[in-house]
Amino acid sequence: MDFIRVSAANHVTTVTLNRPEVMNAINGGMHQELQAAFDDFAADPEQYICVVTGAGPKAFCAGSDLKAVALRGEHPVYPKSGYAGLIERFDCAKPLIAAVNGLALGGGFEVALACDVIIAADTASFGLPEPLVGAIAFGGGLHRLAREIGTKQAMGMILTARRVSAAEGYRLGFVNEVVAADELDAAIARWCAEILRAAPAALRASKEVVYRGLDEPSLQAALANQSSYPAYEAWRSSEDATEGPLAFSEKRAPVWTGR
Predict the structure, then answer these.
(1) In 3-state terms, what secondary structure has residue 211?
(2) From which residue to which does the signal peptide run (predicted)?
(3) For 137-189, how does the pLDDT look when each residue is reduced to its tens digit (9 = 90+)?
């Protein structure tokens, strides 16, 4: 990989955007590498969680590489799962965590919003400044932000193109936890350890039920249709669903397989 780093240990895949010299801005090559990395994570039965972060102390991701567009006319073709190979990856039921270590602007904020959990350093900041350069945040940010924090708060950020701190992101509700910058790695490790206590199959089913249920026309429809969701069906017949009650009855720690 030329533009990202990927590592995997203890059922956790870490994808690091690795262009710190340009605030981890995303160019065409990075889009394709991210698509491949997330494809590999989604397909690997031994990988249960993916952490997305940025290299260096300044930025998670500053969004698209506008200099490449302006100077070289490089207009990247987005991969099949959309911007960064992530923002349209609606079929991935595994947990995704954004470890936001600095600026998360434009497409970078959209990548973070596409994750299920956002843990931010107290030095991080977020925003959708696209209108300031004559563009719009069409990579899901407009839709996800309004859904997550409500229309009025989202429109306040969107129409002013203002940047908000990690603390304000927490107050608004799109950040799960804010920690000191030098404690971010430890916080991510803690979140992963807590998530890994649970059955991977049950977590995948839970994530899918939440997101697909929100798209149903009513709570009644969500309850009626959840048993047809793929991850729910997989969980019902999984080894994890059998192992949980068995381990409880035998008074021992469960051994999850994710199958």
Answers:
(1) helix
(2) none
(3) 989 999 999 999 999 999 999 999 999 999 999 999 999 999 999 999 999 99
Distance CA 149, CA 74 (A): 34
Whole-angstrom distance, CA of residue 113 vs CA of residue 151: 16
Residue 11 falls inside a structural domain: yes
The predicted model scores a pTM of: 0.94
Tokens at residue 138, please? 């069409």
> Which candidate, 184, 209, 205, 201, places its Cα nearest to that of 239?
201
For 110, counting Cβ atoms within 10 Å of its Cβ (0-12 exposed, 13-18 middle, 19+ buried), the class is buried
- List active site positions: 110, 130
Q: Evaluate whether residue 257 is within a structural domain.
A: no
131 and 174 both lie in a single domain: yes
How do 164-165 and 125-127 pair as beta strands?
antiparallel
- Six-digit token pair at 214? 């929100």
Beta strands in the chain (DSSP E): 4-9, 12-17, 49-54, 59-61, 96-100, 103-105, 117-121, 125-127, 164-165, 177-179
